[in-house]
Amino acid sequence: MSSPPSITAASSSAGRFPPALYALTVGSFGIGTTEFVIMGLLLQVAADLQVSIATAGLLISGYALGVFFGAPLLTAATARLPRKFALVALMVIFTLGNLACALAPNYELLMLARVITSLAHGTFFGVGAVVATSLVAADRRASAISIMFTGLTVATLLGVPAGASLGLHFGWRASFWAVTAVGVLATAVIAWWVPADEGERPATSVREDFKVLARPQVLLGLLATVLGFSGVFTVFTYIQPLLTQVTGFADATVSLVLLVFGVGMIAGNLLGGRLADKRLVPTLLGSIAVLALVLAAMGFVLHTQLAAIIFVGLLGMAAFAIVSPLQLRVLQKAEGVGQSLASSLNIAAFNLGNALGAWVGGLVIVHGPGMEALPWAAALLTVSGGTVAWLSVRLDRPGTRRGVASSWA
């Protein structure tokens, strides 16, 4: 049997996406399922563990913060490992973390298990994004990223509704047992399909890699990701109580509505990747603007069930149309040094946005105007992210680069 092709060799196949890219998609499906499944289980977890809905929502924030802090640490720790080995090891951590979630006897241990699970998330997607872009031609890099992230969108389409249904009929722990099985499958597929990359090692030191954070454009890209995506999770973290307590859907109907969100995510993710391959900057700014408009308009339709369903789908589409442009923007600005670290940090930035959004949503519910105001608060966060992205684009212009750089200093 011949040895598996190297990552560099695989990139020569320009006519179609290589199987290794779809192996990364399977891994992202597993990780996406465990990230999003809790959102369809908030009421069951809160009731079973005797905590409030807002406290149960912190399980999303805890996971997101674990991604944020775990991404740079694990990326640095695995920087000298073969990428395939690192990806498989990360999936093992992910699988064991979900097993611990299924067995957790109380809220505190469930939070700890969620954090352990989250540690693999940022590095997997960060390293995976670098591998994905190396597998294709330069003009297909955003599409390659979107293909990998399709696993996340399919996880939302299938994982969240299935998890909500399992939680409703068999208890929330059954959902985590199912995700553990997905983790085992994803680990095996990555080990089988992703090509070996022996001999391929970064030439720089960890200290050199971290110098990428001295680039203002990289930092602006990370900040745009945090703020731009936080609006999504200000609403989506509390989508179950929003749909049941405000819109008036029955509990059993929520999983069907979430299917609409998942379909929108898949469409938006693929569309965002294709548009970003053609014109990155207009796609970046335009997709963030559309997301802000969808969130703002959603606040006016929550009491109408049909309109709410339509806007749940539009929210999914707009939310994931921004993912590939934001990720590719950071990868471009980090080119030359610390690209894997910057890529992982941008995944961490998405999840810091998740944590920020869940936290802001909790404040709006408990101390603010209430659950109905969540979409408007979300829109303001996304607008702030769009403003940062616009500033970053301005910095690209030769006439303004020196002045903006001086202001930054």
Automatic annotation (TrEMBL):
<dbReference type="Pfam" id="PF07690">
    <property type="entry name" value="MFS_1"/>
</dbReference>
<feature type="transmembrane region" description="Helical">
    <location>
        <begin position="252"/>
        <end position="272"/>
    </location>
</feature>
<keyword id="KW-0812">Transmembrane</keyword>
<protein>
    <submittedName>
        <fullName>MFS transporter</fullName>
    </submittedName>
</protein>
<feature type="transmembrane region" description="Helical">
    <location>
        <begin position="119"/>
        <end position="138"/>
    </location>
</feature>
<feature type="transmembrane region" description="Helical">
    <location>
        <begin position="284"/>
        <end position="302"/>
    </location>
</feature>
<feature type="transmembrane region" description="Helical">
    <location>
        <begin position="53"/>
        <end position="74"/>
    </location>
</feature>
<feature type="transmembrane region" description="Helical">
    <location>
        <begin position="308"/>
        <end position="326"/>
    </location>
</feature>
<dbReference type="InterPro" id="IPR011701">
    <property type="entry name" value="MFS"/>
</dbReference>
<feature type="transmembrane region" description="Helical">
    <location>
        <begin position="21"/>
        <end position="47"/>
    </location>
</feature>
<dbReference type="InterPro" id="IPR050189">
    <property type="entry name" value="MFS_Efflux_Transporters"/>
</dbReference>
<keyword id="KW-1133">Transmembrane helix</keyword>
<feature type="transmembrane region" description="Helical">
    <location>
        <begin position="145"/>
        <end position="168"/>
    </location>
</feature>
<feature type="transmembrane region" description="Helical">
    <location>
        <begin position="174"/>
        <end position="196"/>
    </location>
</feature>
<dbReference type="InterPro" id="IPR036259">
    <property type="entry name" value="MFS_trans_sf"/>
</dbReference>
<feature type="transmembrane region" description="Helical">
    <location>
        <begin position="217"/>
        <end position="240"/>
    </location>
</feature>
<feature type="transmembrane region" description="Helical">
    <location>
        <begin position="347"/>
        <end position="367"/>
    </location>
</feature>
<keyword id="KW-0472">Membrane</keyword>
<feature type="domain" description="Major facilitator superfamily (MFS) profile">
    <location>
        <begin position="20"/>
        <end position="401"/>
    </location>
</feature>
<dbReference type="InterPro" id="IPR020846">
    <property type="entry name" value="MFS_dom"/>
</dbReference>
<keyword id="KW-1003">Cell membrane</keyword>
<feature type="transmembrane region" description="Helical">
    <location>
        <begin position="373"/>
        <end position="393"/>
    </location>
</feature>
<feature type="transmembrane region" description="Helical">
    <location>
        <begin position="86"/>
        <end position="107"/>
    </location>
</feature>
